[in-house]
Amino acid sequence: MGPLLFVLLAVAAVASSVAMVVHRSPIYSTLYMVVTFAATAVMFVLLDAPFIAALQIIVYAGAIIVLFLFVIMFLNLKTGVLIERRRGPLWLAIILGAVVAGELAAVVNHGTAAGGARPAVPEGFGSVESVAGLLFTRYLVPFEITSILLIVGMVGAVVLARNEEALPGATFDPPGVGSIEARKDAAAANDAAAASTGEQPQVVAAGDPSR
Amino acid sequence: MIAPEAFLYLAAVLFAVGLVGVVVRREAIIIFMCIELMLNAVNLTFVAFSRLLGSIDGQVIVFFSLAVAAAEVVVGLAIIVAIFRERATTDVDQINLLKF
Q1: Count of domains in chain A?
Q2: Which B residues in the span 23-62 are in contact with A, Cβ-Cβ below 8 Å?
């Protein structure tokens, strides 16, 4: 059961991550990323980290993916935009990836070859209690700094992505459009013109059944 | 029980895939997603070592890594949106100036 599940998850994770990299549509790439993250979450469970697995699902597969999808749809990337022109040969990048993977694998092989005692995990390893116990004692200061980081990130996103046009007192005046007041006046004039010619559609509608 | 080393090798492969994606793709959002993939691979390494060493500290580090990744995604996507408003593109080859 265990090894088979791991092989299944590994194949799913690697295949979906490769598909994520090579697929042309950002939406499909994001959905492949969900598969990769979900497979990783199950691996966290296999590694006795159920709390981190739940966090992975909530934060990555939930919040971050939704944010990516939202931005992709918000930018409304056209198909023409998606056609990318690659710089340089593709095989060079693949060789680079293979070299990096081999290097990391060599490091892992070297680092874990010595072995040593494998401590048996105690009961409740990776549970909410065990993680939170460490989080609120030894890692209390980093935990508080994390809250500051999240506040800064939130404020930064609002400042970066705000619409200058909608700000009160903003001097946004595109050529040929005029100020907001002028546009309101024009809209009001349009409404008045539509009201004065309101009889016209009624005449047409009344004339229809007689035909 | 699977040896945690297997997860370390898998994390290495996922990291390499993300790296190739960053190098190959030109769309800023896809590059961003590949960076997330690399972060995810590192998280997997942390959890695997946490299991290997019988220490819960690795999982706490992953907790912080998730918080940092969330903040990073929010700010990064806001930057991409701001650049798209300015330049009407997210192609990194056309965004090669710090000031424009």
Answers
A1: 1
A2: 23-27, 29-30, 32-34, 36-37, 40, 43-44, 47-48, 50-54, 56-57, 59-60, 62
